Amino acid sequence: MKSRIMDESIEVQEGFLCPLCMKDLGTQKLLQAHFSDEHSNIEDPTKGQNIKGIFDKAKRKILGKGEEGLEQGGYGRNEELQMQTAGKELDFSYWEPQEIGFTQDHTNEFRRSRTQTIDDVMIETNTILIRLEKILNALTDADESRSLSNSKKKAKEQSMVPWISDDDAKLCFGCKKSFTIARRKHHCRLCGQVICGKCSEFLPLSSAATFCEMDGAQDVILSLDDDEANQKNALRVCYQCHDLLLKNYEIKRQKKKKTPLVQLYEKLTMLMADADLLLPDFNKMAESLSFGDTRYTYQEVIATRLKLLKMYETLEIVSKKVVALGQTTTTAEDGTTKTVMPGKSSQKLQRGIHAYVTNYLQNNMFTLKSIPSEEEYASLQKERAMLLKRRAEREKAQQEKAMKERALVHQEVLRKERHSLQNSPVIRRREMNVEQRRRSFDPQSDAILQQIDNVKDFLDKARENGQFDEVRSLERNLNELQLEYNKRIKR
Amino acid sequence: MNTITAVKQYVTKMVEDSGSGMKVLLLDKETTGIVSMVYSQSEILQKEVYLFERIDVPSRETMKHLKAITFLRPTKENIEHLIKELKSPKYGNYYIYFSNTVKQSDIKGMAEADDHETVKELQEYYADYFAVSPHVVSLNLPSCARAGGSAWDIKAFDRTTDGLCAMLLSLRKSPLIRYHGFSDMARRLAGNIRLAIDKNATMFDFRRQDIPPLLLILDRRDDPVTPLLNQWTYQAMVHELLGINNNRIDLSKVPGISKDLQEVVLSSEHDDFYQKNKYLNFGEIAQNSKELMEEFQKTVKSSQKLDSIADMKAFVENYPQFRKMSGTVTKHVTVISELSRLVNEYCLLDVSELEQDLAAQSDHTSALQRVRRLIENPKVRDIDLMRTVLLYALRYEKQSDVSGLLSLLARRGISDYYRRMVSAIVQYGGKNVRSSDLFGQSKTPMSLSRRLFKGLKGVENIYTQHVPLIQEILDNLIKGKLKEAQFPYLGPSQLRERPQDVIVFMIGGITYEETLAVHNLNKSVPGIRIVLAGSTIHNCKSFLEEVVKATGIAGEEKRTRSTSGQRHGPTTF
């Protein structure tokens, strides 16, 4: 039985599908055109009406409507009950939040058990590698290797690797069979064990060099290979050593090599990260612009938007590349084209990545805030200017009014005081205080104004350079300063 | 206590702990279901999980650039598969999570196989059960008892213990245990859970709650009636008539079904309409689905007028929701219209009325007459006839005229197999087996007054008269009136206070009618949290299959079929 989750993954379709007929139309524009052309005359499907008829009948029966022996009152109450349950349904939710359930970690235990076996393998592999390197060096070192006779070569090899003596070996180390005239004894040049011909193979020096990653030496060895029979310049090794070398090489290669898919995927994640970083800044810009605010210039907002859109576009292109990966189309001589597709799982994987990106674009690109046109912006600016002006005027008027009132009260009080205490020294002192305070107030607020100007300069510079973090913190400063300034003015 | 959240949190953690990068989820048959109940494919895609593979499929592609999040039950076969996998790894790295406790020797075996050093994590995350709803859990065990007796099938016993322990660990509960005293199976399970908790005391050492949680183990045999009834709430009805399997519904037998609707998914986690309507009456759903369709049509119409840029933008912005909505509409309209077709074709309203009266009323003569009359009706399905006859046999066990009905059934040509089911159901859950007053027949003052009260209230809806026994048991439990003689505690400690967190497990499966009853209790009783778990979720068909297995009449069936070769075999269920 197939499972749901896998079935789904087969059927998943992504892209610009028409919601009604599931046709893939490739782009947003085409989809809209298709939708208005093909589906513009959807009226009540007759199917729906049929269903409705059946429903009504069933409903009447189930709810007891028209059922004999049941009063209308009973039905009414029933319906009331349903309304209540429906209302409650929305309020009730199931007991969240909750802590994640109990877990138990065996990773360390696993690693401990693994280290032992791994260590053994590692030591063995390393020994073989060192020996192989030595042998290769000796062979490539000098021209003497060429002149060396077979027996001398053997002795040289033996000096680097301790060979098990023939007399000690009764059985083949690989297949455990006894040696005969037909099954002769050989030595593995790497571990020194005695094996039969079937349990060993010749490792060409070129591959030996690749295993050792002696890239420079390879040329020399290749030339050696050219003019000699390859058997002579190959090393007899047992299968066990050969496997260890191969495995080690595979692991190393895996670590270094990046498949095209991995490269594209890295590009995708990088682009997304960049776009995610830029998006909040743009949202702030667009918002301020829509209020007719002049904190950002129109051009720079447009530029940021274009930058974002460019990123999204690249994302889409790269994700399309991902889908096409591994497909090769060849044109045969008779003109027919043949497309070779990658494996089924690879296809699923690539489509999955495409769907991931498409979803990301749907959430980000399609909901990107639009920007008012230049004329609109101009009028918005005017509006805001008017608004600000009006507000300023209103504030000014209020202030003046308040001042006047205060002055009136003040005069009143003064008059009264004068009446009661003529020429009292207290009054003179108070008048002096007022005078002093006014004077001391001015220089401070001047300083704030100066600071505001400075910060504004910084802000412009930061914005030009695109240092958005700085812009944000500067803006915060600016706001604080302005608040402070307003407070002081009011006082 | 939310089981969906518990499983989902585990899966989320698995997927997120491995960091960013392309991922494949490597699962077994059961964990595939467990994950798919809580995560939709598009949702898990957002966590960079692009591929799902099964560990038991050997011919998988090698993809070294993927991280394999491996989530398996710790079975022998799975460990073997995994060891083979680690010896020649197909993926770059393995993050291994087992859904239950792993043996030390298995950990060692896997470690020795991992000479490529691809394993990065090995953990136990106890998502070893199917979370159907926040308060509903199934173990997907079609049957529990060994044939011919009321003893556990050993595999089912182990799986149930595993599932329940995992549930307790995932919800962080170390409960007091009560069980249905009449049931040997309940007693054995309770004892085994206690043993498992005591053996792993360090794992079950959770923060003490003021009121300790309670695990109540029940047995289906005490209420064989509920699974026999036709249902009229959406979810229960779909299960009864179409069958729900891990939230999936097979519609391939629906006449004229289009290809992409042959199997649909109904998940309350990802489908708002279903979430809101699964407990509502059929009549209300019909109404609501009509509204859903009208709303959709409105959306379609408004999106046609793409005159201005603003319209177009709105369309594109709503596009994902729009697509989702169109899928929801077609799905529910298809399901609901199929339900109403079946209701009409098989006279289910008539059948259900009789069933309800059999279960809730007590007029023997009229009941017998009406069952006889139903057997005459050619439109009624065999299985529906069987329900009423089985209900009749259970309800009027001592005074019944079952043999008369059986001969009527034989005349109608209903198979021997079906007819033998009458004695099977009595053997499974007859009067001698049950301990509760299922039909309110006893003459105690309480049950008398209850019946009287029912009579005074009048019948609100003749199709929903029946109240499942579990509601009464839980009512009594909440009020502190559940008798200790009938439902003993395991061990010396008892609950003195009103219970707060209750996990109910029903051996032999639960029904959607019961999940609704528990939902209503959760909603209406403040401070109570009940999770209802069962070995499976039954509809009538699957329940009868379990009854057949438990009573062992299947063996006889084979003999009769080979001799008589009748048209109505058990396959027509």
Automatic annotation (TrEMBL), chain A:
One of its GO terms (molecular function) is metal ion binding. It holds the Pfam family FYVE. PROSITE patterns: ZF_FYVE (PS50178), ZINC_FINGER_C2H2_1 (PS00028). InterPro entries: Rab4/Rab5_effector, Rbsn_Rab-bd, Rbsn_Rab-bd_sf, Znf_C2H2_type, Znf_FYVE, Znf_FYVE-rel, Znf_FYVE_PHD, Znf_RING/FYVE/PHD. PANTHER family: FYVE-FINGER-CONTAINING RAB5 EFFECTOR PROTEIN RABENOSYN-5-RELATED, RABENOSYN-5. This is Rabenosyn-5-like.
UniProtKB/TrEMBL annotation, chain B:
It is a peripheral membrane protein. Keywords: Membrane, Protein transport, Transport. One of its GO terms (cellular component) is cytoplasmic vesicle. It comes from the Eukaryota. Its main location: membrane. It is found in: Endomembrane system. GO terms for biological process: protein transport; vesicle-mediated transport. Belongs to the STXBP/unc-18/SEC1 family. This is Vacuolar protein sorting-associated protein 45. It comes from Paramuricea clavata (Red gorgonian).
